[in-house]
Amino acid sequence: MHLQDILYTQGFGTRRVCAGLVQQGHVAIDGKAVTDPFADLDAEGLLFTVQGTPWAYHEKAYLMLHKPAGTECSQKPSTYPSIYTLLPSPLRLRPNKGAVQGVQAIGRLDQDTTGLLLLTDDGQFIHKMGSPKHHVPKVYEVTAKHPVDEAQIAKLLGGVVLDDDPKPVRAAACESDSPLHLRLTLTEGKYHQVKRMLAAVGNRVEGLHRSRMGDLALPADLAPGQWRWLTADEVAGLRAPAKAAKTPK
């Protein structure tokens, strides 16, 4: 693949802009500037720098982000900063045929909700992870306003009715390890679902954090606002059929 095309697929601008970056000596491989935009390279596994910033070629982008509180999962936020401002420009500008450019969040978290958020430019992967038909378990750490009792847990596991659907929704797993903390596993993604489920059993969410999606847990060393690439094994694990939901210890 030509070097200018490699840069283009990674979101460094139009092909003309990418050619200019190369011709001006801003792109280096193995520490040496490459000035021929038509240099033919094996893109797979290629490591390079653009204006001193290291980058690795990825045919498709698969990321995790530790969403901080006070951010919106929207390209056009209304009140709070967008999560997309936490990502480098190339991830926001990656070309995508017939769709919005750049990576997109898989589902949304409320502005006050923190935790694991996946982003990608792979439309099929977005559908796989976001569709309720695939039953991908998502684990939420809930801080409740009032102590959680066994009756509330039983109702959450048995099913509660929300105001927009007569069909009960139920937690796939639920446990409380302290009076005001609840670990809740869901396989659906209804609007404000955790908050509405807690309200339906007579309680209230004071804090909400998503700690896991499928077999992928938010790493303890990924601070709020930070992101990283998913490994090939992590992507493969997320693509695998959903297992019976268990509440992680």
TrEMBL record:
GO terms for molecular function: 16S rRNA pseudouridine(516) synthase activity; RNA binding. InterPro entries: PsdUridine_s_RsuA/RluB/E/F_cat, PsdUridine_synth_cat_dom_sf, PsdUridine_synth_RsuA/RluA, PsdUridine_synth_RsuA/RluB/E/F, PsdUridine_synth_RsuA/RluB_CS, RsuA_PseudoU_synthase, S4_RNA-bd, TruA/RsuA/RluB/E/F_N. It comes from the Bacteria. Its EC number is 5.4.99.-. Residues 3-37 form the RNA-binding S4 domain. It catalyses: uridine(516) in 16S rRNA = pseudouridine(516) in 16S rRNA. Residues 62-200 form the Pseudouridine synthase RsuA/RluA-like domain. One of its GO terms (biological process) is enzyme-directed rRNA pseudouridine synthesis. Gene3D superfamilies: Alpha-L RNA-binding motif, Pseudouridine synthase I, catalytic domain, N-terminal subdomain. The keyword Isomerase applies. Keywords: Isomerase, RNA-binding. Belongs to the pseudouridine synthase RsuA family. Responsible for synthesis of pseudouridine from uracil-516 in 16S ribosomal RNA. This is Pseudouridine synthase. It comes from Variovorax paradoxus. The lineage of its organism: Bacteria, Pseudomonadati, Pseudomonadota, Betaproteobacteria, Burkholderiales.
